[in-house]
Amino acid sequence: MIKKQLIIIAFLFVGFQSFAQWSKGKGKGYFKLSAWYLQSDQHFTGTGELDPNVTRTQFNTNLYGEYGLSNKLDVIAYIPFFARVAQNNQISGTNSNTIQPGESFNSFGDIDLGVRYAIFKKGNWALDAKLILGLPTGSSAGGSDGSYQTGDGEFNQYLSTSVGYSTRLFKRPSYLKSYLGYNNRSEGFSDELRAGFEVGVNIIEKKLWLSSRINILQSLQNGTLNAANSNGSIFANNVEFSSYGFEAAYYFTKNIGASISFDSAFSGRIIAANPSYSFGIFYDLK
In angstroms, rounded to a whole number, what is the distance separating the alpha carbons of residues 56 and 40? Predict the structure, then answer.
C-alpha cells in the first residue's frame, strides 16, 4: 500500500515548475528541456505522520513550452516524453538475503496542454487566467504489481488566476507573484485547491535570476476512490502538501540559459517526504 502512495508527487512538483512564467506577448515564447529526479525513502501518511518506506526513485525528462498567439493569449504544453519509476531490492536485516528483488518501469508521462489569457497588464501589475487540461497519457498501472505509475489515469481540468508585481529588491529588478487555482478531477478522484507565492530577484543584471516559492495543495475529499480500489488509485487520491522551493536561472546569451531547482514538502498527507531536483536548458524567445 505504501509504495502506491508515493508516485503522484513527482508530477505535482513538475507541474508547478512553470508557475513563474508571465504572459508572453505575440510571437514570443519560452521553451525548456528538463530532467527531474526524486529519490524517496520516507513519506507523509494519511494522518500527516512521517513513515519510512522501501526506497523508490522517480525520474523524467520533459519538454515545456509556451508561445504567444497574440498579446493576450498564450498556448502552453508540458510533455514528459520519458518517465521512469524504480525500486531498490528489499534486503533482510538478519541474513542480508534479498526478500524482494528491485524493479523498474519506463513509459510516457501525463501531458498537460493549456492556454493563458492576460486579463490586465499595466505599469508594474499583471493579472492573468490559465486553463490546463491534464491528459492521461501515462501508465496508471505499471510494473508487476501495478504500483509503478507514470500517470494517474484521469482527465483533469485546472483553472487558475495569478497576479504579479514587478519591483526592485536590494536595488535589483525583482518580481512578486501569487496564484490560486481549482483542479477538477475525474474517475472518482477528489478535486483540489492549489495556491502559491513566488519571489524572484535578478542578482546579476540580465544574467542570473534567483527565486523562491511556496506551493500548497489541499484535497476537497470529495472523491470516491478508496484503498480497496483494484488499480491502487489511492496513491493519487486525497494527496495534500505544503512545499517550498528554490530555483536559479542563468542566461549564457540573450536567449539561451540553464536552470536548476529544488522542491520539498514540509508537511503533507500521502506524499513523499524527500526533496526533488530539476535541471533544464531553456530558450527564451523575446
Answer: 5
Q: What is the pTM of this model?
A: 0.89
Alpha carbons 286 and 270: distance in angstroms, whole number: 41
CB-based contact 165:127 (threshold 8 Å):
no
Residue reference for cell 535541471: 279
**235 three-class SS:** helix
pLDDT recorded at residue 45: 85
Pick the CATH number of 2-285 from 2.40.160.40, 1.10.8.60, 2.60.40.790, 2.60.120.200: 2.40.160.40
The ranges assigned to domains in the chain are: 2-285
Q: How far is residue 50's CA from residue 8's CA, in Å, rounded to a whole number?
A: 17
Segment holding 59, helix H or strand E:
strand 50-68
Rounded CA-CA distance 123/100 in Å is 60
How far apart are alpha carbons 190 and 166 in whole angstroms? 35
Please give the backbone phi and psi of residue 269, each rounded to the nearest 5 degrees, phi first: -140, 135
Distance in Å from the first CA to the final CA of the chain: 48
pLDDT digits (tens, 9 = 90+) for 72-98: 999 999 999 999 999 887 776 677 676
Give every CB contact of residue 116 below 8 A, 6+ residues apart in sequence. Answer: 23, 66, 73, 74, 76, 128, 129, 130, 131
Cell 517550498 found at: 244
Which of 220, 176, 175 has its CA nearest to residue 194? Answer: 220
d(CA 257, CA 255): 7
Of 109, 124, 115, 148, the residue nearest 231 (C-alpha) = 148
